[in-house]
Write a structure and sequence with these properties.
InterPro entries: aa-tRNA-synth_I_CS, aa-tRNA-synth_Ic, Rossmann-like_a/b/a_fold, S4_RNA-bd, S4_RNA-bd_sf, SYY-like_C, Tyr-tRNA-ligase, Tyr-tRNA-ligase_bac-type. The chain has helices spanning about 20-25, 70-75, 85-90, 110-125, 155-180, 195-200, 205-210, 220-225, 225-230, 240, 245-260, 270-285, 325-330, 335-345, 350-360, 370-395, 410-415, 425-430, 435-440, 445-455; strands at about 5-10, 40-45, 80, 95-100, 130-135, 190-195, 265, 290-295, 310, 310-315, 420-425, 460, 465, 480-485, 490-495. By secondary structure, it is α/β, with parallel strands linked by helices. The chain has three domains: about 5-295, HUPs (Rossmann fold, 3-Layer(aba) Sandwich); about 310-395, Tyrosyl-Transfer RNA Synthetase; about 410-495, Roll (Structural Genomics Hypothetical 15.5 Kd Protein In mrcA-pckA Intergenic Region, Chain A).
């Protein structure tokens, strides 16, 4: 991707200057200003340039002449809107400014946050402008929506680290989305990242009661589903959590008044918080023109949340989950879910998705073709072309029986995603493969290893082993560093040799 211009006008803050490391890690110049407590990331990007690979080319999707509301409806990304007039507003100039909030509860976003970024990206692709609001202030309170217990309080150092991590991820992804949207002038950036601590840090309790509290109606607040469920539970709800909807609501007031943001988006569990904002704008500012939009939560066909694995959340940051493992998660999506996820999580045209769905019903359909396209598109969106190529290379190289030559870098790249162990060189050399499979924990017993070998399912560096007498030789240790053992197609063990 070629970057034509990138301007950072102000640096965000929470309780410290940790945010500077976020910019430095991304090789972003930090520019000082007299008021350093706000941060704009303005992106003016040329078209993507992709190197040749075996993966499919990216989908560019619609441009600024499309109505984003109609697109979201077609792709099952629209749950509710606060006003039907939003549809006509989206069709008229000037472009809208749309925001989605992200509370820094961890140092990485996870798959549950991805829909918010995708919906922002659709607005970008249709010529509008996106604002990602980091909850440096609200993250200290904790959103009760969908939660049965109050979140533990984060210390300030952890909070700053989390803000830095998720801001970098959001900026990376939205920049790529902006590259295929309508170019905007420098007076108003395509993508902005703000931190709500920058205005909340100067508001006293008396200011809050005067500015917001007198306009809030307790009955309306208590009728919100997230509040009602908690009040009816054994745990109840603290006053701190009860005020969260007013904090988020005032965020919308501030962004509407100071930044020209007129649309807030969020998951369906955010409906109460979003309508609190549109209501406060009407009461405090005595004006119309603020809209809310929600999208459905990402669920599998059985009704359970999509985005959890046996090991926990599916993280978006490559430091917490490699592009390879991220790709593999989507590659394993069941047939019952894959078409719906292609609509919701990719920018492929509806015609191409319909063709993939028809192909799945034909006798000559190659299994997992639709899943492969899903994995390619989502991995490219989150990790970029380089991340996708890394994932595809590892997937091909690590497939048992693959002809691709393995190298230590490829194997070590998945070392955190699959079981691994370390053994001394002299302990590995001349050890029988059966004994190595047991001592590393790949298989439970030597008899199990022998049985698997006879069935043709035991692999050394992707090469099937047929001889029980096979011993590890020097040329079996790839680059003198690692060995890859496979029991069948899925169970692997990386042996680091020292």
């Amino acid at each position: 991707m070629a970057v034509a211009m990138r301007t950072f006008l102000r640096l965000p803050s929470s309780s410290s200057s940790t945010y500077g490391c976020c910019c430095l890690l991304k090789n972003i110049p930090i520019l000082t200003s007299p008021t350093p407590n706000r941060f704009w990331a303005s992106t003016h990007l040329s078209k993507h340039h992709f190197s040749s690979s075996s993966v499919s080319p990216p989908a560019l999707g619609p441009q600024s002449n499309s109505n984003v509301i109609e697109i979201l409806e077609q792709r099952n990304l629209l749950e509710s809107v606060t006003s039907d007039s939003l549809r006509s507003v989206c069709s008229k100039p000037p472009p809208l400014r749309v925001y989605c909030g992200f509370d820094p509860t961890a140092d990485s976003l996870h798959l549950g946050n991805l829909l918010g970024i995708i919906v922002l990206s659709w607005f970008l692709r249709c010529g509008h402008r996106a604002v990602a609001l980091i909850g440096g202030a609200t993250g200290r309170v904790g959103d009760p929506s969908g939660k049965s217990l109050e979140r533990p309080e984060l210390d300030l150092e952890t909070l700053d680290k989390n803000i830095c991590g998720i801001s970098a991820t959001i900026l990376d992804i939205l920049e790529r989305a902006a590259a295929v949207g309508e170019m905007t002038d420098s007076a108003c950036p395509s993508v902005s990242i703000l931190n709500n601590y920058d205005w909340w840090k100067d508001i006293t309790l008396l200011d809050f009661l005067k500015e917001v509290g007198r306009f809030a109606r307790v009955g309306t607040m208590m009728s919100k589903e997230s509040v009602r469920k908690r009040l009816e539970s054994d745990q109840g709800m603290s006053y701190t959590e009860f005020t969260y909807q007013l904090l988020q609501g005032y965020d919308f007031v501030h962004l509407f008044r100071k930044e020209g943001v007129s649309v807030q988006i969020g998951g369906s569990d955010q409906w109460g918080n979003i309508t609190a904002g549109t209501d406060l704008i009407r009461r405090i500012l005595r004006t119309e023109g603020a809209y809310g939009l929600t999208f459905p939560l990402l669920l599998k066909s059985d009704g359970t949340k999509f985005g959890k694995s046996e090991d926990g959340a599916i993280w978006l940051s490559p430091s917490k989950l490699s592009p390879y493992n991220f790709y593999q998660y989507f590659f394993s999506v069941p047939d019952d879910d894959v078409v719906r996820f292609l609509k919701m999580l990719t920018f492929l045209s509806m015609e191409e998705i319909a063709q993939l769905e028809r192909d799945m019903e034909t006798p000559g359909y190659v299994p997992n073709t639709a899943q492969r396209r899903l994995a390619e598109e989502v991995t490219r969106f989150v990790h970029g072309q380089e991340g996708l190529e890394e994932a595809v290379k590892a997937t091909v190289a690590l497939r048992p029986g693959a002809a691709t030559r393995l190298d230590a870098k490829t194997i070590e790249g998945i070392g955190e995603d699959v079981p691994s162990c370390s053994l001394p060189y002299d302990q590995v050399l001349s050890l029988s493969l059966l004994d190595l499979s047991v001592s590393t924990g790949l298989l439970e017993s030597k008899s199990a290893a022998r049985r698997l070998l006879k069935q043709g399912g035991l692999y050394l560096n992707n090469n099937r082993v047929d001889s029980e007498g096979k011993k590890i030789e020097a040329n079996d240790i790839i680059d003198g560093k690692v060995i890859l053992l496979s029991a069948g197609k899925k169970n692997k063990m990386v042996v680091r040799v020292s």
